[in-house]
Each structure stands twice: as structure tokens, then as C-alpha cells.
Amino acid sequence: MIRKVVIPAAGWGVRFLPATKALPKEMLPLVDKPMIQYVVEEAISCNMEQIIIVTSSGKSAIEEHFDRDFELEYLLEQKKERELLEEVRGIAELSNICYVRQKEQLGLGHAILITRELIAGEPFAVFLPDDVFDAKVSPIKQMLQVYQRYQGSVVAVRRVARDELRSYGVIEPQQIEERVYQLLGVVEKPEPEAAPSDLAILGRYILTPEIFEALEVTPPGIGGEIQLTDALRLLAQRQAVYGYEFEGEYYDAGRPLGLLQATVGLALKHPKMGPDFKEFLKGIRRQL
Ligand code: G1P
Prior knowledge:
binds 1-O-phosphono-alpha-D-glucopyranose; alpha/beta; globular
């Protein structure tokens, strides 16, 4: 059983400047909700009992978002905006969330490492809010089945174009069944010619608690940061780590073009806005 999930939300969001100068990038809207709300809802749909968000200075809007706001609720009540009121209350009732503050931006691996005491020796999940999925069965649910079969860490992977590999952790795979690979190695952000395959890690992980021992001895890697990928390589030398090629659509909402693509992709499927948005896009298409 995986009961805990870590959502790292401490990064700078440099790629979105100036939009993220005063706003955490995780609060940028994707259609009608901030990006981070999607991963919190995903965690709840997977029955995660504890959600741990790693924040940093300047990220207090995230905590506000998942908290009650009595003034706002009162205002909406006065205005008889029942639907909005339910929505706003619902967000605060989504789950019990713990916040851990990363005081220095020492990388994704470090962000995970500081949750060690809260994870307390259990296997756990990591969801990166920048990675947006649109799948019939969420990738993490697909991965949980692999975890149950093999009882080892599982990372989500997908084939990406060679020249995009330098944006990802890339695995050296040994296929063991359809869509499942054992990691012989893994490299963070390789140059395409040095990449061990075209299977990139995307932001969903199920990790065994031994990852913390690996993280503790992981030296700073690319970009001077403690990389989760480097710790996974150490872990894979001690116990089997798996990559699972999930089924579904993926958007890299960690960059402006990807966020735009995710917005269009999800807006088209939005129950209320979808049909009108589709008509709008058809009109645009005629102008292209
Ligand atoms: C992080 C990880 C990388 C992974 C990627 C998925 O990189 O370090 O291994 O492939 O997320 O989005 P970042 O996007 O933070 O540069």
C-alpha cells in the first residue's frame, strides 16, 4: 500500500518569468485550476492519505489556496454564489496537507530528502506538478500495479524525440515484459548522443524508502543540484528499479509552450467549456 505522496513545489519557475516573479509557478492556471490542484486531486483519487508539499520562500499562495478563506466564503454566501462557494470550500477540504520548507534550492533530490521523517520508512509516491497527464487510467494507478507485482521502485517513462532527451532523466533499460523495464542505469539530462535510450523519466515515481539512503550520499550533479535521478542510479545498484511505459497523453507544462498545449488539450475535454472552445479553435483554424 502506498499512502504518502511528496509533491515538490519549491523550484524557481525561471522558465515562466516574468509571470512567476510574484506567483509560484505551481499556481499558474491550467484551464480553470492552478496546476498544483491537479496533482493534489490525483493523489486523492489514488487514496493517498498524506500529501506532503515541499515549498520554499515565496510560495505561501499554495498554502492559502488549500486553506479555508472565511471572508471569501462569507462574501460568496452573501452573493448567493452557491456553486462557487462549494467549489472554494471543496478545495480546502480536499485533504490534509503537510508542508515542508526547503530552505535552499539544492535540487529535486534534496527536496525529497527533507521529507524523510514524514515518510518514516514507507514506500511512497512522488508527483511533479509540471508533468500533466491525460489518461483513462492515471499513470500512477498503472504504475501501482507494477509495484505490486515487483515490489520495487517504479518510475514513469515514455519515448521522447532524441533532441528532447536533454530535458529529462533517461533510463538504460532492460525490457522484462511489455511496457516494463528494469533500470540498468539512468542519466540526468544527457546530451542526445550520450543518452542510453530514448526512454525519458516523467514526473511520477513510486519509491522504496531505501531511496533516502541513496539520496544522502548523492553528490551534487548536473546544475550543481542533488538529482533524484543520480540517487535512483545508486538505488538500482542495490535493488531492482523499474521503468513503466505508461499509456496516455503527456504534456510538459514546465515550459510555456507545454503549458499552452496542456491548456488546449484539457480545455477541449472540459465538460462546460469544451464545446465552445472547440468552436473557437475551428474558427482560428480557418485563419491559419
Ligand atoms: C525533473 C527530473 C528529471 C525528469 C523530469 C520530468 O527534471 O530531474 O529526471 O525527467 O523532472 O519532468 P526538471 O523538469 O525538474 O528539470
